[in-house]
Amino acid sequence: MTKDPYVPKTLATRVVDEDRQMGLESYIGTVLRQKRINQELTIADVAELAGLSRGMVSKIENGQVATSLDSLARLTSVLGLTLSQLFRDYDSPEGGAQHVKAGDGLEVVRRGTKKGHTYHLLAYNRGHQRNFEPFLISMDDESEAFPTFQHEGVQFIHMLEGRIDYRHGQHVYTLEPGDSFTFDAQVPHGPERLARVPIRFLAVTIFSPRE
Questions:
Q1: CA dihedral 129, 131, 137, 142 (to 10 degrees)
Q2: Is 141 helix (H, G, I), strand (E, B) or coil?
Q3: How far apart are CA 119 and CA 136, in angstroms?
Q4: What proportions of the chain, in percent to the nearest 5, are helix, strand and coil?
Q5: pTM (global) more than 0.70
Q6: Which of 12, 72, 91, 135 has a CA 20 to 30 Å removed from the CA of 30?
Q7: Whether 109 contacts 120, CB under 8 Å
Q8: CA 68, CA 131: separation in Å to the nearest integer?
């Protein structure tokens, strides 16, 4: 079985080739240099306190040499770091976080909702599999004829403002600020009546993972 190259390994078991080693040295140097600058210390200050030459400290900070554990221990001690703190962020996955500022969600027009309704998509899928869709939905038109939605997944609604009568199957539920509503999205659903506008609610559809 081929191992996933993106799964981080522990420092003790990681096999480091020449390019990888240069990456590690560069990382160590960057962390040490930033820590020194934050403490307003010069290379000469650190070299004297650590018992190392200025040239060696400079080369370490610039990732130009493979540093011994003894030298690293001296430098981290001078800078108030532990070795575990030094390597804390090395090889950490960057993740895929998305930060959408207020009002910056992608506006989406859905069938039958062009008048008085706004759908802002709050997270954009960038992978091959869609896991969920979060929308901030705003409604301000009491005369709109509402469509019925039916799609895969489980939907969660949390009311923020206004009051709405929301139909799911054969039942109608009155939703007010602070109310939450979770349902099977494959059952026909949608707004039945806008009882008090403006209306705002968060709607999140969660999709089942596909094999």
A1: 90
A2: coil
A3: 6
A4: 25, 30, 45
A5: no
A6: 12
A7: no
A8: 46
Q: What is the pLDDT of residue 94?
A: 57
In this structure, what token pair is assigned to residue 45?
């200050």
The 10s digit of each residue's pLDDT in 2-38 is 444 433 333 333 333 444 445 788 888 888 998 899 8
Residue 155 has which token pair?
Answer: 């939907």
Q: How many CB atoms lie within 10 A of CB 203?
A: 17
User: What token pair was written down for 128?
Assistant: 């091959």
The packing angle between helices 18-38 and 54-61, to 10°, is 110
Helix (H, G, I), strand (E, B) or coil at 54: helix
Residues in the chain: 211
Which tokens go with 76?
Answer: 């981290």
C-alpha 79/C-alpha 36 separation (Å) is 7
For the segment 166-180, what is each residue's pLDDT rounded down to a tens digit? 999 999 999 999 999
